[in-house]
Amino acid sequence: MKLFFAILIPVLAASAADGQAAKSTAPTTKSSTAKSSAKPAKATDASKPMAIPADAVQDATGDFHHTDAQGNKWLYRKTPFGVTRLEDAPQPVATQGRPSTAGGAGILAFDEGDKVRFEKQGPFGLWKWEKKKTELDEGEKAALQASKSNRQNTSK
């Protein structure tokens, strides 16, 4: 272990000295072509942390809402990595991992006694779920009725 440190310390010192020598030998002259008569565009420094505006209103979840001079609504949120700014738009309500059943569009329903089995083609394959007949929502009821009428029409 002593041998390891005896070798490591001089190597680190030599590499640090090489880095300092490389920095000091770098050319420090500016070319005349780099200068221009037009001023460069004002750039924002992303390394500076974003601040929450003073007139922002905090809601119950801890987020801050602010409307800027152009009329855009923004949502400011404190995260472990600093403050983030998002456009303040209403978010769609999640359907707990199952596809939308509004109107029963695109849903196949199979009556299996006291339960109904549903299938719908989703973006990542076939979605399947089961529910008791007493727990069906409006879209699922519509899908069941549509599937029953389609089966009666095809069997005739």
The residue-averaged pLDDT reads 79
Number-wise, the strands total: 7
Give the number of helices.
2
Strand content: 25-35%
Question: What is Rg?
Answer: 32 Å
Structure described in brief:
The protein is α+β, with helices and mostly antiparallel strands and 156 residues long. It has helices at residues 2-24, 138-155, and strands spanning 57-58, 64-67, 73-79, 82-87, 107-112, 115-122, 125-132.
Explain what the structure shows.
By secondary structure, the protein is an alpha+beta fold. It has 2 helices and 7 strands. The chain has helices at 2-24, 138-155, and strands at residues 57-58, 64-67, 73-79, 82-87, 107-112, 115-122, 125-132. The strands form 2 sheets. It has a 4-stranded antiparallel β-sheet with strand order 1-2-3-4, with no helix packed on it. A 3-stranded antiparallel β-sheet has the order 5-6-7.
Key words describing this protein structure:
single chain; 156 residues; alpha+beta; 4-stranded antiparallel beta sheet; 3-stranded antiparallel beta sheet; elongated
